[in-house]
Amino acid sequence: MSENLEAKKAVVEEIKGKIAASKSIVLAQYDRLTVAESTALRRKFQEAKCEYKVYKNTLMRKAFAELGVEGFDGDLNGATAFVFCPDETSGCSIIAKAVKETPILADKIVPKSAYVNGAYVDAEGVKKLAAIPSREVLLARMLGCLQAPIANFAYVLKAIAEQKS
Prior knowledge:
Layout: H1 3-21, E1 24-30, H2 35-47, E2 51-53, H3 57-67, E3 80-85, H4 90-101, E4 109-116, E5 119-121, H5 123-131, H6 135-164
Antiparallel strand pairs: 1-3, 1-4, 2-3, 4-5
Helix pairs in contact: 1-3, 4-5
């Protein structure tokens, strides 16, 4: 076999490994991103333990096909970036936040779809995922709700004790 074919097979295997290791993958159309904008996005993804990569669409299509994943053929056209994420929402949230903070990016990076926990999510679903807070924020809110009644009870007991003194 030719070296080129072997190299492509190695890349497909690498992609399959990343798909298997990720809870979500965001597919985004990128166009006319400057080096500085691309570097800033990569840094934000890196901080969230996500990986921003650009692969050939044909290689991603092949990897998805080998894993039995369907529904992405329409999205694997044009300049497509892939964000491999360890959780369900961080990739979507980072893109949405970057566009909100820097409006010029609105036309430069646009989410096409996502692969979340083995399911295809369209562009509207990606926007909804971006609105969901991270797991840590949700846990903090839940703990706050659980602690509030106990804290209020403690304040009432303290007020009663201070009145009797």
